[in-house]
Amino acid sequence: MSSSTTPSAPPPTTPASPTTAEPAGLGARLALIAVALMWPTQLLSLSGLLGGNAQASVALHFHTAEIGWFILVNALVGTVILPFVVKAADLYGKRNTMIAITVLGLVGDIVAALATDYETLLIGRAIAGFYAPIAALAYASVRELFPPKQVGTASGFIGSGIAFVALGGPFLTGWLLDSFGFRGVLWALAIATAVGLVLLLTVVPETPHRVRGTGFNWLSGLLLGLGAASVIYGVGKGGEWGWTDAGTLGFILGGVLAVILFVVIEKKSANPLFDLTMMSRRPVWSVMVATSLIAGTIFGTGVITQLLVLFPKIPTVSDGLGMTATHFAVIGIPSSILILVVGFGTGALLRSLDARIPLALGAALACLGFVLSHTWHYTTFQLIILGPVSAFAIGMIVASMPVLIIQAVSPDEQATANGLQNLIQGVTTTVITQLVYVVLAQDSRVVQGTRFYLDDGYKNAMLLGAALAAVGLLTVALIPKLKRTEDVTAGEALSHS
Fold this sequence. Notes:
- There is one protein chain.
- The protein has 497 residues and is an all-alpha fold.
- It has helices at residues 26-62, 68-92, 94-114, 118-128, 134-145, 148-160, 162-180, 182-202, 218-241, 246-268, 282-300, 302-310, 325-331, 333-349, 356-375, 380-408, 414-441, 455-476; strands at residues 313-314, 318-319, 444-447, 450-453.
- The strands form two sheets. It has a two-stranded antiparallel sheet.
- A hairpin with a 2-residue loop joins strand 3 and strand 4 (450-453).
- The longest helix is centred in the first third of the chain and has 37 residues, at 26-62.
- Residues 1-26 and 489-497 have low confidence and may be disordered.
């Protein structure tokens, strides 16, 4: 958001107390809006879960050694278009923008579900990547749609919705994969996206803030998006080409240079994509760094367990556990319930608890979980016992992240801040996922076009996760004490709807 522009409406004021000014039934309406925003936001998590669990089936069906791109191409497109989506939200409204990208996501899901070859499947997954920035807009919408005292609770509720994904997603995946194969998963994603579109169209009101008189800075957006994508691609090819190979260095260094040019151009632009001046403030940049690295580690390393559990056990070829997707879901029940309980509990406590505490505890537990899993990951019993460690970590992390962003910025900066955080977290997650595949590939076998992974690869990937979680824990110390969520001025978009 450009600092030289002004919203079309005056800054919002604090809504009156619900007991004196709000019409009857507004509480129920707010709850319905929260659910409508949670659905498309957590559909991203569901897509990651379903897609991740379907990887083994997809790899075996299409006989590909490049299964990583089934997940990564979606993230790459989301990274490239995110700056433009955030700017479109400033100009045309968050609801309108969310509807547009959801339609594109639905088109991509259908193309992928109908694909008869791996290349077409990747094209569909790439188009579906347009849906990826929706979480940034959903969290930013909360700032304008909810009264101040409910902003933290609503954000925590939306973030904690990942518990429902964690609880029901594995069973849905198990049923779909075991009954209909990977195509059942792809069609389920298309149906879920369609439901999210209906909710946006019928339940969510438009947000009032607009930034008028500005246009898209296409050069900045392309430099940022393509620069990030170039780094991600270079990291992914590092294990195959070699880290000192001219091609690897070209992509990585070229991407870094593009991002540097983006910063230079943005500072001089009359219509910047992002108001980067906020990043000069310690509360903002420290929250961005800590949340992006910790969340990126949690979500970027999820493929380790998915591949370990669902790939077959083949002596000297594959050290997967060979479980069915349904069995995987069953052993994850305790962890899924804990994510639900911890997530909602943390969201409620954040009204009075410093949000840095659960973020730090989550990072510490994630590190511990990786270290323990390095030794114990061979049986169903071991997976069940160690699962709760990661569950506590995930529940606390996802509930505290959106609250920290809200506390670090002003209302007018919310969309930009969410966009930046999503962008940084998206790139971080994708780079970490690439690094996981690179580490796994060092101890793998390719048979009939399909890459299988050995135990040393899984163990080394877990050590990578532990190291990244430890670094993430250290970054929490960089975050200064922030203002309470209840002291943050929120919008009253409902009065405009």
